[in-house]
Amino acid sequence: MRTIKSLLLISPLFFSLLSQKADAQTDTLKINFQDAEKQFIENNLSLLAQKYNVDASKALIQQAKLWDNPTLSTDQNIHDGSTNKFFNHSNGGGQIFVQLSQVFTTAGKRGKQVKVAEDDAKVQEAAFNDLMRNLKYNLQLDFSQLATLNAQQAVYQNEVKSATELVNAIQKSYDVGNTSMRDLIRLKALLFGLQNDMVENNRQINDLQTELKTLLQTKETTFIQPIVNDKPVENVDLDVQSLINQAMANRPDYLSNQYQLSSATHNLAYQKALAVPDITAGFSYDQNSSYARHYYGLQIGFPIPLFNRNQGNIKSAQYNIKSQESTLKQSEFQLKNDVVAAVNQYKLNQQLFSTQQIAFNEQYDKLFGSMLKSFQQRQISLVEFVDFFDTYKDTKLKILQQQFNLQKAIADLNFAVGTNVIKS
């Protein structure tokens, strides 16, 4: 008996402190998902870091287009022993040799190298889009779950308030001998259980608040209050094959595998081109060391592909193409299965969540008020009221969970297709 009384004395103080802690976060950010998504894209540091990788890979395309620099070399006498002078070239004496050479690539190597660089840039851009896709998916789940937990918190607060008022009334009735200890203890246990559930729910809210603040880059003192559409989504005609085609055109993970296969194909062409020798052409001038004074020469050179014809790199590139082809096929199978599973899950949750369910939810709230009044007027027994109290809480939480499940099914469908098929 003393333990129950102690709990009831501590609980109001604890929840008062809990409320004061929540009130300390004076900056409440009421935001819908579209605005949250926009703020997330503008402020997220992970996206900014990946964007730099995209810019860096695009810079390599420009680098691949550049010609090799020409080579200039010279050789001349430093000291003339007969005149004891440095760099003496007077009266046609001394020696000067100058050579200018340029490498000319053959077999379209530069164009093929540009193709590889362009493919690599597309891969980096697809990686950026895939990172955004995953982060936006996590954002939408956190956003919807936080809205659900906030709604659950309202349910707990309403029930705790009603249960507290009942306990206080029954306590007074018990003190004058009109209520049994068994009924009082049962109501106190019910209140204590609700308070514990509310604390756990609040812990989950705090965890999600931390995640969303990180994603949105908001102040640490901000309390995020998601605004969601709790009305049922209108029936959407979902053609599976059409959605699969959309996914193959939009999903960055699948597109990345396509770009990597294209890069492997272009790399094979580049490696084969490397087997063709490049030509070096040049001009030279020799003042005194050649068979004739003031010699002008034309140089042409190229390596003879006798031993190294780039055979190893060509074979490696061929195997890489086969590997990328298998990866792309596996990615296509996974894509199709993801779309079909997401469509089925959405249809299932959409059927469960309907307009009739919302009407039932409102009627159930009215019934709760009627049952509470009936118990206070002793028209129903404590056992009947407690059973209804537990059923009411469980039903309300299940309705909210169904709302979240529908939002998650929409997020899963959009994630599987790679675009917003249904707006949440």
Automatic annotation (TrEMBL):
Keywords on record: Coiled coil, Signal
UniProt cross-references to InterPro entries, sorted A to Z: MdtP/NodT-like, OMP_efflux
Span of the signal peptide: 1-24
GO molecular function: efflux transmembrane transporter activity
Species name: Mucilaginibacter oryzae
Coiled coil: 191-218
Family assignment from sequence similarity: Belongs to the outer membrane factor (OMF) (TC 1.B.17) family.
Protein name per Swiss-Prot or TrEMBL: Cobalt-zinc-cadmium efflux system outer membrane protein
Membrane spanning residue stretches: none
Pfam families assigned: OEP (PF02321)
